[in-house]
Amino acid sequence: MNNTLAVYPGSFDPVTFGHIDIIERASRLYPNLIVAVLGNSAKKSCFSLEERTDMLRAVLGNKKGIEVDSFDGLLVTYMRNKRANILVRGLRAISDFEYEFQMALFNKSLDDNIETVFLMSRAEYSYVSSRLIKEIAVHGGDISSFVPHIVVEKVHEKLQFN
Ligand code: ADP
């Protein structure tokens, strides 16, 4: 088992301070962390795969040990190719639990080497979600406390052209 490499997958549509907090904390636990952006989600994304990965790269800069990548298809296949078996997910509230529990069990049944590790959200970000960020912005609300400045700009740009 490779205990030095972890994968944090998600849609990141767009990246929020909640995600960034999980990334920073996971990277303290694991010297190498891949933030893996999901291309083919059942959820229709607001930002393209390229926009989502670009925002993450811009926000994270060149932090040692953190890589931003993207994947399509099954996460377990992606992780096998990367020779990674630690899967990091964030938990905000009980409402996340059921879905995350199901996903963790599914992934474990697809590949028994995969261990899902959950990090609890920081209290101040426990109600922050990409979906609500977009909803608040559509209605003219201020999202600057929840996402980095560069993401605020990208969200506003996106709304202008929609
Ligand atoms: P997905 O579409 O895979 O759920 P998201 O980008 O919405 O992707 O989330 C990726 C992971 O980050 C999930 O485990 C989610 O629960 C977690 N997450 C999202 N927002 C927060 C937050 N504010 N605090 C902690 N974890 C979060």
Give an overview of the whole structure.
The protein is of the alpha/beta class and 162 residues long. It has a single domain, classed as 3-Layer(aba) Sandwich (Rossmann fold). 44% of the residues lie in helices and 19% in strands. It has helices at residues 17-29, 49-60, 75-82, 94-110, 130-138, 149-160; strands at residues 5-10, 32-38, 66-71, 86-91, 115-120. The protein has a 5-stranded parallel β-sheet, sandwiched between helices. The longest helix is centred in the middle third of the chain and has 17 residues, at 94-110. It is globular. The N and C termini lie far apart (46 Å). The model has no long low-confidence stretch (mean pLDDT 94). Bound molecules: adenosine-5'-diphosphate (ADP). Adenosine-5'-diphosphate binds at residues 10-12, 16, 18-19, 22, 89-90, 92, 96, 121, 125, 128-130. GO terms for molecular function: ATP binding; pantetheine-phosphate adenylyltransferase activity.
